[in-house]
Every structure is written in structure tokens, then in C-alpha cells.
């Protein structure tokens, strides 16, 4: 290659470079926008690589036939995708081989991307779709803009990808003003850059060889067209600009609301009911725990399984919204004044079932298992479910509130905590009175909570064989039932649930937590499972309370400290003072006088009968209207063939109403013969004279029309359909009029045609 040819090649390369570079930048900007909701820049880097790779493959293969470019690019796409999945899996420390990881990502990429927690962890299933979309957008754009020379049309795939990235981000990040302005600037630069010229004559004046008069006319026409186009652009800008400007401050739609997040089963939605079963099998091995780094004192920390915040008077429920999460979970700021300590544990699942994943609160990092996380409660699930032998490690930040702040702290109120303050309707009066008694004697929130915990610990017993249940009736029996009849004893289920309900009745925001309290590292057995209540305090957070009785302590009878006041007897039952005439004696002696002002028995009976007749009349009217609507839809709506078929169904329904149904095995002519015979028998029984058309040729003509519809579809006319409707109407009226009077009335409201199968 000579120097001149090398310089020419370099010049041509520089002239051709702006468009491919612009395409790479446009596609890469989509990764920048989407990466704002990711936890780190790995996704943006992978999408930049996909943009550069796709465009470079197309530019390098521009000398080849166009049908070869797509296969080559797809091969390169497969290689870059596998590399991206490998990097993402290594970044997230996911177990399993590359094939297993890739298959799982391909199956679940879209739902996990749209249900992932913000910020999204770059895992194989959350990077697969963006990387593939970026590569395909770059390939399409390069083929259209570089090979075909349609630069503006080539901008469409990157623009669609950019709009999709904005839509996926939605309201979860600040407006992308900077990337959008850069996108427009790069697109304009790509259009303004000089391209390759294959024909030097294309630069010549197109009207140079024309006569002056023709040249002037052509230039005038071009100027007019340019002015008209400019006017259209200005008008569109004036019309569209206010609409676009009005959407700038509007909150974008979050596509995650259209995708259902991971759900738990009913057993996990209310794990509180599992306490009694675990209490009956105390040696069942549920977990194995090894603390790698933990608290220096105070023994092993409690492991939380679930947080139950919703109570409907029957069951406590989790009510969480879980989002797919990566290895790193969103950080939660500790409460002011609370001391924190890091806890790292390795947990192996034994006989524990369900999807809830045990962890010390509050988890910050999870390895060895794919998880979904609810930030509001700090609980984890494994969407695939637990399996014996599953091993994972959890790093948590354990908080210990400042006891000096708790004793003087207030409790929050308002809509933000309405969920944990809600007391369902139907709370027994005894529960309300007990909560009122404990609250009146203790004004501060912490004193109220401590009084409830102390009351439960001093008056009730823990037994492993207590039946499960924490609905209002169960709690009433637990608190006030006779001790010799099974009352006043229960498992931690009843203690925690009773504390939470009494606390809410006393104005405290409460919830119930289910978890484990292991004695040491090693096996966590069913005997270590229990439930405890927590109360929310301003500036402190959720504080656990222990309403369980102390070991070897004898419970004090409830009646010693709480004696429900009897309800006020009704006035008619108040006894009169001894030795004096009762002021209510005349009223009691004259029972008829007490009810004289009320309605008498005849009025009540008449009203009841009238109401019943009104209901029956309304039902019959509704049936009659439904029957008329059905007939009208059959005879007046649809194509002519459909209307003829509807008329035939009216005929067969009439035969069924008359008690002479036509079997499905009969031909149309045989059904017509049966219809004639049925009408003749009915008229003979009543002594009426037969109409010629209705008793003879009418049904035969209708049978002929039905055969025409069956054997010559599309040949029926509207007049024939009208004729079929008239024939079947006349036949039905004749058959109905030939029946006794009460049967005629029942004919109009019979519900059979509304439900008979066709």
C-alpha cells in the first residue's frame, strides 16, 4: 500500500467514523440511564461493551453480503452474553455452573428484572435482558445507518432502547436530563457529520443545465416547499411543546406495579400457627447455625423468621411485599442512640419447610441463596422454597436500643403507622376492659407495654399441649377461661398475640415476630421456636418485649387483679326496693300497654306477606325480561344464517316447554313433524281450532330454511331470516295459547331456556 492510498484510506475511515461512533454512544447511554437503579456500574459497563461490540461487528463485516452479518453478530452476541453472565454470577457470588446460571437467567430474566428491589443487584437474571437488547439495537442501527446509509432511520433502535430504559427506571431515579440532552446532541452530530460520497456529481447544482426561466420556477417551488415544511415543523412544535413540557414534572409510571412480586404460601403467611406443632415435637432439628462473627456478650442472638403486622380478628399475617434482591441488601439507618454490632452466621436448613429464610435482624448481605426481601419488615424469603441441606450465610446488623430513651419515648400515630395500630371490629368487651385497666394505671407508652407484659407473665402458664389459635375467641378463652377447664394457659403464640392485641387496644403500635432463640451454636430445634411481640417507639424503633412467665413461677389467678364489672341490667329487670311500691310495677303489670305503640301482629304478617309477594313479583319480572331479551338476540341480531339458527332454537325450546323435547338425533324434518303433532295434540285437548300456517306448513318451511343454512352456508338472505322469525313466533304463540291459563303464565317466565345447553 502506497502512502497516498494509505492516506486516502485513512481519510475515508475518518469520514465514515462519526456515524458508528454516534451509534455506540447512543446505545451506551441507555445503559447509563438504566444503571442509575442498579447497585453498582457493572450493568452500564456490560451494556457499553454490547454497544461497541455490535456496531464494530457490523462495520467490520460491511464488505460481506448482508445475510452473513446477522449470523456472525449472533455468534458474537452469544459469546458476550455468556461472558456477561459469568461476570455477574461471580460478582453476586452465586453458586452453580455457567450452564445452570444461564438457564435460570433465561427462564426468569424479565419477571425478576421487574420485581427486583431498588437498587437492583447486577445478577445474571437482571443483566441478561439489557445486554441482549443493547446488542440487538446496535446491530440493527449499524445495518440501517452504515450499510444502507439511512442514518436517521438507524437512530430508531437506539431511541426505542433509550425510551425502554427510561420506562423501566420509572419513578425510581431522578430525571435523566443530562443523558437525554447528550443523546440529542450526539444524534445531531451524527447527522451533521459528512458521509462518504459515492458519486461526485451528486454535489453539482441540480438545476445548472436548465434554462433561466425553468431554473427560477424550480427554485421558487423548492423554496415554497421548504417554507411549508418549516411552517409545519414550527406548528407541530407549538402544539406538542406544551404537552411535553407538562409531562416534565409528572411522575412516570412504574412498570413494577404490573408484575406480581414473589408470593409466600398460606403456611408462611401466618407462621404463628406453627408454634404449637413445634412445641409438640421439641426435638425436631430445623436448622444448624454457626456464628462466624457475633456479639461479644449476651449469648447467641435471636433468629427472626417472619414479622406479622396485619391482624383481622382471626389470624396474624405477614402482609409483606417481597422484591428479588441480590447479595447486598439495602442499608437501613439504625435508630438514634442505638448500639449496633455485626453478626455473621452460616445456616444450614434441616426440617424447616416453606419459603421464609431465617436470619438475625437486620440482614445486610446474603450469600449462597437467591433471596427476595421486604425492606419494611426486614424479612427474607427464598422464592424456590427451602430444601434440606440448603446452606447460606447472612451478615446482619443487630441493634440494641438505648433503654434510657425507651422509658421516656412516645409512640407514633397517624396514617404512617395505621397498619400496626388497627384493631379489627368485634374485639370482645373483656379484652377492651383489661386493656383500659392496664392503660389507666400506666400513662407513659413504655409503662403501658411493660404493664401488659408483666400482667401476662404473672397470671398465665406455658404449656406445650395448648391448642393453636389466636382469634378473638381463642384469646378471650386464654385470658379469661376457667383454669380448670383449659383456660389461662398457652404457648408463646397466645402470649405474643394477646400482648399485641392488648397493646393496640391501649394505643400502642405492635406486631408479632416468629423466630428462634438458640442456646448456642449448633442445631436449632423446634423447642427453640417461639413468638414475641414488639412495640414501635419514636426515635427508637421496634423494641421487643417478653410476656412469657419466669421459670418455676406460680401464676396468680386472674380474678385477683382483674374482675370484669357486670353489665348494667336492663330497666325491666331492676328489682324494686323492699317494703315500698315499685314505680315500674304498673308498667310491668300491663304488658299490652308496653307494646301498644308498636305494630300489631296482623300488620307484621301483612307486611311480611306483601314483601314476599314483592320479591316473587320482581323475580318473575326479571325472568320474563331475560326471556324476551334472549329471543330478541336470537331472532334480530347477527347474520341471516345465525338468525335462522336462532329461530330453530326457539322452536326446540318451545317443544321442551310443552313437554315434548326433540332429541339431538332427529333430522329437521322429523323435528318439524313432532312440532306439528305437539300443536295438534294441544289444540285437541283444549278444543281450539288450528291455524293453517302454525299447524302445518310453517314448521316445514322453517325446517327447510335450517337445512339451507346447514348445507349451503352463506346463501340465506335477510328476508328469509325475517320469515323464519315470523314462523317461529307464530308457532310459539299458538302452542302457548293452546295450554291452560296458569301454564301460559309459567311459559313466559320459565327459566329453562336461559340455562339449557345448546
Strand arrangement, largest sheet?
8-11-6-1-15
Average pLDDT level: 81
Span of the ends, CA to CA: 85 Å
Helicity range: 40-55%
Work out the radius of gyration. Answer: 41 Å
List low-pLDDT spans. 565-598, 691-695
Main sheet specs: 5 strands, antiparallel
Query: How large is the share of residues in beta strands?
Result: 5-15%
Number of strands: 17
User: Rough shape?
Assistant: flat
Could you say which structural class the secondary elements and strand pairing correspond to?
alpha+beta
Tally of helical runs = 28
Describe this protein's structure.
With 758 residues, the protein is α+β, with helices and mostly antiparallel strands. Helices cover 52% and strands 11% of the residues. The strands form five sheets. It has a five-stranded antiparallel β-sheet, with no helix packed on it. Mean pLDDT is 81; it is low at 565-598 and 691-695.
Question: Keywords, please?
Answer:
758 residues, 11% strand, five-stranded antiparallel sheet, 28 helices
How would you summarize what this structure contains?
It is built from 28 helices and 17 strands. The chain has 758 residues and is of the alpha+beta class. It has a five-stranded antiparallel sheet, with no helix packed on it.
Question: Secondary-structure blueprint of this entry?
Answer:
Layout: H1 3-16, H2 18-34, H3 42-60, H4 66-92, H5 98-115, H6 124-147, H7 151-154, H8 156-169, H9 177-192, H10 212-246, H11 266-269, H12 274-280, E1 285-293, E2 303-308, E3 310-311, E4 316-317, E5 323-325, E6 339-349, E7 356-357, E8 363-367, E9 371-374, E10 379-381, E11 391-400, H13 403-406, H14 418-421, H15 429-440, H16 445-459, E12 461-462, H17 472-480, E13 489-490, H18 492-505, E14 510-516, E15 522-525, E16 529-537, E17 541-544, H19 585-589, H20 591-594, H21 601-636, H22 640-657, H23 668-686, H24 692-695, H25 697-711, H26 718-737, H27 741-749, H28 752-755
Parallel strand pairs: 12-13
Antiparallel strand pairs: 1-6, 1-15, 2-14, 3-4, 5-9, 6-11, 7-10, 8-11, 9-10, 14-16, 16-17
Helix pairs in contact: 2-3, 2-6, 2-8, 2-9, 3-4, 3-6, 4-6, 5-6, 6-8, 15-18, 16-18, 21-22, 22-25, 22-26, 23-25, 25-26
